[in-house]
Amino acid sequence: MEEKPALADFKQQLSQQSDIQFIDVSFDVETTQWQTYLQDKKPTGLQLISKNQQETSRKLGFGCVPMHLIAEKDGNFIKVRNFAAAKNVLLEKIQNQ
């Protein structure tokens, strides 16, 4: 949760990049709290909630949260544990286009 403000700023910074889509997956058990967060903060990007954290984690191949996945055009994923590293990877990919 502490990464959310920096992530929101980064999403806004890249909002004009049509080839970049942000998808947030929540594991909140209390969906009312999650829905309240969405209404209050109005985050950009697609907002999803997992009904089964274990299955979602297994299918996406990660064991801890937060986890940042960068999907490449060829369908491969880059898994990055912290936001700062994910931001650097994504900015580098944009610069190398």
Structural topology:
Layout: H1 4-13, E1 23-26, H2 31-41, E2 46-49, H3 53-60, E3 68-71, E4 77-80, H4 83-95
Parallel strand pairs: 1-2
Antiparallel strand pairs: 3-4
Structural class based on helices, strands and sheet pairing: alpha+beta
Roughly what fraction of the amino acids lie in strands? 15-25%
Please mark out the parts with pLDDT under 50 across 5 or more consecutive residues, or reply none.
Answer: none
Q: Tell me the span between the first and last alpha carbons.
A: 31 Å
Over the alpha carbons, how many angstroms does the gyration radius reach? 14 Å
Fraction of residues in helices? 40-55%
Please outline the major beta sheet: 2 strands, parallel
Number of strands: 4
Average predicted confidence as pLDDT: 88
Read across the widest sheet, the strand sequence of neighbours is 1-2
Q: What is the tally of helical segments?
A: 4
* Series of H and E elements: HEHEHEEH
General form:
globular
Characterization of the model:
With 97 residues, this protein is of the alpha+beta class. The chain is built from four helices and four strands; from the N terminus they run H-E-H-E-H-E-E-H. The strands form two sheets. The chain has a two-stranded parallel sheet. Strands 3-4 form a two-stranded antiparallel sheet. The longest helix is centred in the C-terminal third of the chain and has 13 residues, at 83-95. The relative contact order is 0.16.
Q: What would a concise description of this structure say?
A:
With 97 residues, the protein is of the alpha+beta class. The chain is 43% helix and 16% strand.
